[in-house]
Amino acid sequence: MATPFYVTTPIYYVNDAPHIGHAYPTVAADAIARWRRLWGDDVFFLTGTDEHGLKVQRAAEEQGVTPREWADRTSARYREAWRLLDITNTDFIRTTEPRHYEAVQQFLQVVYDRGFIELGIYEGLYCVACEAYYTEDELVDGLCPVHGRPVERVTEENYFFQLSRFTDQLLEYYGVHPEAVQPESRRNEVLGFIKQGLRDFSMSRTSLSWGIPLPWDPAHVTYVWFDALFNYCSAIGYGHDRAGFDRYWPADYHIVGKDILRFHAVYWPAMLMAAGEAPPKCVFAHGFLLVGGEKMSKTALNQIAPAELVADFGSDGFRYHFLADQRFGPDGDFSYESMLARYNADLANNFGNLANRVLNMTASYCDGVAPDARDDGPLREAAARAAEGMEAGMDRLDYAAGLAAVWELIRAANSYIEAKEPWRLHKAGDAAATAAVLGDCLEALRVVALLASPVIPRASAELWRRLGLSGRPEDQRLPGAAAWGLGPTGTQLEKGEPLFPRLEP
User: Which of 52, 55, 100, 130 is catalytic?
Assistant: First the structure.
């Protein structure tokens, strides 16, 4: 039976339209999902929208519609954005769905019955944008430390989750499972926060109606994090399909932004422990995608919709840039100019040019029929290193390193062509030597199409087709499919237009 593999993105607030900051973790999650499918895993890939809370209610009021109408409208925009980027999610969860309501209420009842929730009075500082409470010393110049906005003082009767009871349990868990928060800098941040001492947190509101009522006290609705975080469980069957839930839980990766690390690596595992469930295997927190040195926001007016870039670079160009241009983890700064330079250098000049040259020469010199790749061809070792490098990079979500290994094979093939000059061999009448060079390069292209397919699926599939190979790259299975010498041999090739036409500034 295939190994289950479960990867999630954050679920995105419907108070705003999707931008490239949302697309960044979604493309990353899609690439690892596609990669694990190549290895034959039973992949469940989840994304969705977070639709409750004060922030959403206020956004709807500003637009003169109900929260439900606003959620329906904006959630559909996320679905469309992910279709545009060729995202292959297994499911799309909405926190307003009946299956989520039922699962959250069952989960809440379990935690309450086990004695980890109690009634109290809360007075504190609340950031609507974060849906989070802060203490005075956590503010920066009196403003929210994440959004730089004023906070509101709130006083009301709330139920509290007894997070303080899990300090030692969380420290013990992370001591045994240091891989459970990545990268290491984020793990150190989490450990530092826990060691300061955890405080119980408010997990219900009475001043808000847009949310899931508590099953034992319907006058209260669930505080957004107790609701939103549970999407990871409700989507895979909690409360109605225990076998399905047990198959995929705990999640292999929660891919999240660093601004919600505390909720995913402190609150969430404690909530699960309170219900007797296992914590996620890994919370991987990436940095912000900055524009002009600033985090994207409505107030900064620096949001960029994915469609704006896909119109110029295609979905493959979009996906490749955001995974290859920098390591996944630290903050990254986006600019259109750097995206254009990366596209032209890597995709048009290196990969696209190699495919174009080899297919054209094979059409001209070999009647368009693919020659054999030699067992001892000089590109064989380069192909093996590419497969090893891509595997090592993907295993640690270092997409840039994995793609760099694949591009070393592309460079090796381009250098091989320059060294052997098949046009001279053909002109000299040495058909065997010409075929040998082109056969090796065609096989290198097959390996590139296979390994790069999780990141640039459209171009990889098109190259696969032009090589005369059956099926698609995603139908193959690693590690065997990356072995040297599996084709194309004797297939009829097709030249076609450039895979990545060069773009002018």
Answer: 130
